[in-house]
Amino acid sequence: MANFQNFRKRWFKPYRLILHEKQSYKEAWQMTITRGGVASTAVALVLVIAGITFGLIGWTPLKERVIPGYVSEDSRQRAVLAEVKADSALHALRVQEQYLTALQTLLKGEVVPDDITTEALDSIALANSENELDAWGITEEELALRERVEEEDQFSLQRIQSGSSTSKSIPFPPLQGEISSKYDPGAGHFGVDFVAPVGSIIHAVDDGAITLASYTSDGGYVISVQHYGGRQSIYKHNQSLLVEVGDRIQAGDPIAILGGTGTHSTGPHSHFEWWVDGQPLDPVLWLPEYAPTTDEEGGD
């Protein structure tokens, strides 16, 4: 108890702090202080300075310059986003490699293993979900077209299993319509023209892989499909395309919408070519349900 009293007297004994003018030694300012008060004030001042410093460093961009190795939240988010994009790119690259492997196998006339085909198409499955359609901003018109294509696909009259057709025959007609222009290789017309209402669905004539799906000045939107047995089908002047290069398709699958694009088109129609072993053939000879007719408008 005596020690506490001595401690209290020593630390809380009042002192007078006086300031004098230098020249006249006149008292200018004074205050009463204690050792305990000075210590408390010093501790409080240190805490305030520490708090201000922490606030400046912790809640302002200053921390990125002061703290060694500090990574900002934006930098972390960008790093995570970059990692996600890199992973997606690697996955897309693996899928593309599988497509190319399947396409090379197909061009050799061999049967593509089911495991390659399934794995390559797994990444596309999400495109059929409503969330994916919303994410890409699909319009009502495009949704209606998608429903019409699905309906066409649902009521296709036949399906040919992969590799089942290796002759020159055409297992499935490209569309239902009238032939307006016949096969005439002498005039540079290596196919036939089908006339049908604009917006009609064009189907793949057999199983295969899409080797060309692009726009050309003369043929408009063009699709080329490589089939088994050295056979190839070509579809020109489409209004729009429903497939992409590398896609695997089956006989009867919707692949395009009939139109009249391209400088060599004089009206809405579908120009169809059938090539076997690098040579063009008259498709009518392999489509018995179609009989040659006189030229009508809409030809090349």
Structure characterization notes:
The chain starts with a helix and ends in a 19-residue tail after the last strand. Helix 4 packs antiparallel against helix 5 (114-122). A hairpin with a 3-residue loop joins strand 7 and strand 8 (231-241). The chain has 3 domains: 2-65, no CATH class; 73-124, no CATH class; 139-300, Glucose Permease (Domain IIA) (Distorted Sandwich). It has helices spanning 2-11, 35-59, 62-66, 73-107, 114-122, 130-135, 140-154, and strands at 15-20, 27-33, 178-181, 191-195, 201-203, 208-216, 220-227, 231-241, 248-249, 254-258, 270-276, 279-281. Strands 3, 4, 5, 6, 7, 8, 9, 10, 11 and 12 form a 10-stranded antiparallel sheet that branches. By secondary structure, it is an alpha+beta fold.
Please describe the structure with a list of short key phrases separated by commas or semicolons.
Glucose Permease (Domain IIA), 7 helices, single chain, alpha+beta, 35% helix, 3 domains, two-stranded antiparallel ribbon, 300 residues, 10-stranded antiparallel sheet
Which structural category fits the helices and strands? alpha+beta
Q: What general outline do the C-alpha atoms trace?
A: rod-shaped
The number of helical runs is: 7
Total count of strands: 12
**How many structural domains can be distinguished in the coordinates?**
3
Poorly predicted tracts of residues: 121-133, 155-165, 293-298
Largest sheet: 10 strands, antiparallel
Overall residue-averaged pLDDT value: 77
Radius of gyration: 40 Å
Helix content: 25-40%
CATH class of the largest domain equals Mainly Beta
Q: What's the architecture of the largest domain, going by CATH? A: Distorted Sandwich
Listing every helix as H and every strand as E from the N terminus to the C terminus, the arrangement reads HEEHHHHHHEEEEEEEEEE
CATH superfamily of the largest domain: Glucose Permease (Domain IIA)
Q: Ends: how far apart?
A: 116 Å
